[in-house]
Amino acid sequence: MLRRSSRLLVRLPKCRRPRERPWEIFNVRDFGYHEGSQNYMMWLGTAVVFTSMLAFEVYQQIQRKLASSTLTLPKQGAKQQQWSPYQDNGGTTAAIAGKDFVILAGDTRLNGDYCLHSRHDQSKIFQLTPYTYMASNGMQADRLQLQQMLKYRVKWYQYNNGGRVPPTKAIAQLMSTMLYHRRFFPYYTFNIYDAGRLNGAFLYGTRGSAASFLEPNAFTGAAERDIYTGDSVSFFIITKDGVQRESFELRKD
Fold first, then answer.
1. 3-state SS string over the chain?
2. Residue ranges per domain, the chain?
């Protein structure tokens, strides 16, 4: 750009374009350095040393400020909150076995952390075969996963054996193997099948948050004492003639 003056022509310098990245304070090329050159490497080393010294000086100043302050930290240290992948969704199940019948019962309340998620949860008692049921408590996600895996294995057994329904003993062994396989990250479930009568050891069984409260007025008394049990209880009565289902109302609060 030329500008005419009274005596001579003066060439003005061109205005430099603003940098595309405003955080660039300067460019090494402004000083005649180019990548790969010796001067460039010297400049880079100097910049690294300068940055390290500046960071160390800031660290020392922070330490001096903390040493001179009156702030005192508690001796026990900061409180740690550890995350857990498990959650107990409450509920209670029970089973009674007789000479030619089995009764399974489970409440319909689903909750966690003092929150009521559902009053009509039907996932605690699950049908595996026409005459094999499983009652489960614990974490609902693990309970549903275990039920679906068992259902898949039962169908696979039927496919490989011409549609023959697996006996309860085979299903119990299958469940034992599956739970042992997950022993390092186990399913958070507590299960009852065939009322524990597979080997003739028990005539009844209970699982869940109110298992220790069950007695002759089982679920009514348990609902009075345990906030995780309530709403209603579903009964599955299994006999040689078939399966009968009944429901009994519990307290709602």
1. CEEECCCCEEECCCCCCCCCCCCCCCCHHHHCCCCCCHHHHHHHHHHHHHHHHHHHHHHHHHHHHHHHCCCCCCCCCCCCCCCCCCCCCCCEEEEEECCCEEEEEEECCEEECCEEEECCCCCCEEEEECCEEEEEEECHHHHHHHHHHHHHHHHHHHHHCCCCCCCHHHHHHHHHHHHHHCCCCCCCEEEEEHHHCCCCCCCEEEEECCHHHCCCCHHHHHHHHCCCCCCEEEEEEEECCEEEEEEEECCCC
2. 92-249
What is the pLDDT at residue 158? 92
**pTM above 0.90?**
no
Tens digits of residue pLDDT in 35-51: 555 666 676 777 778 88
Question: Across residues 136-142, what is the average pLDDT?
Answer: 90
pLDDT score for 57: 87
CATH T-level topology, domain 92-249 = Glutamine Phosphoribosylpyrophosphate, subunit 1, domain 1 (3.60.20)
